[in-house]
Specification:
The protein contains 13 helices and twelve strands. The protein is of the alpha+beta class and 333 residues long. The radius of gyration is 20 Å and the shape is globular.
Length: 333
Amino acid sequence: MMRLPKFSYLVPREISDAVRMMGDAGPEGQFVAGGTDLYPNMKRRQQTPRTVISVARLKELRRVEGDGAGGLRIGAGVSLTELCEHTVVNRDYPFLAQAARTISTPILRNMGTIGGNLLLDTRCNYYDQNYEWRKGINFCMKKDGEVCWVAPGSSKCWAVQSADLVPLMVAVGAKVKLASTLGERVVDAAGLYNNDGIAYLHKRPDELLTEIQLPPVNGWRATYKKLRRRGAFDFPVLGVAARLDVGGDGAVTRAKLVLGGIAPAPIEVREAEAALVGGPLDEERMQAAAEACYLKARPLDNTDFVMNWRKQMARPYVLRALQELKAGMRDEG
């Protein structure tokens, strides 16, 4: 049985208390909400904080305010189950509830939070093993070693960004608010992620993610498609998030296509976006966008399924996302 290492457990009452505690704890401190990622990592000795600061009871992080007309503000501590069931989310941002339902299992969605999903640790078949297994291969670059076993000649860690909500938040242009003892700052979701399996966040360790801000829904629509082995529980080995803005004449005026589950950061495929903009969402443009995503997708052999097959699946999954958006446009028309 894998057991947690010893650590101090602190429960702040307010955000200001939480960031102060983290400032006191320094590099050996760690925030936790649902713990569905951190605690298993601690059992495998991937992360070994000496101080764990629980933000699960902070009421400031459990609020959902606003609507599609003016934009939605979601506290980072809102559970995935609450996202799935929230009336305003389902009415104005149904793609978010849809994506949240694909994450893990009902029990874990009761515990896991939107903030935790956006900050999920990168994953890899060589890294996500117990301590003894990793020690047997002499560890890896991401933790305690010097070699990336996925690409031994690489100076970079290739652990994969496997959070379902990440590509979606990047695609829709969400922003996130971060708090620390130095104050607050708001950054674009796209700017939060770094294409490196170790330093995968443009975020200081002492910063607490407090809020996710969704833009007003001014006629645009979005969706998310996920490839995994089982219909429940599994992490994505390919995620496709799509957002389209369509003018009154039916022409696409703006497009965002973001791939997840294949690299250390979400990948925005600008060539696919360019193929869609400037005309109607017809078969030719959708096929061109799917082909551009296929060319951009370069998964490595560090998750489930054969990597070449995962690359091939970029085409049909992009097409499914775009066809769903087109069907929604037709229904509204």
